[in-house]
Amino acid sequence: MGSERRDIESRAAVVQRVIEGIVQNPSVTLTVSTLQQWLGVPLDAAQRILDRLASSGLVSEVQKGV
Question: CA 44 to CA 27: how far, in whole Å?
Answer without folding.
Answer: 24
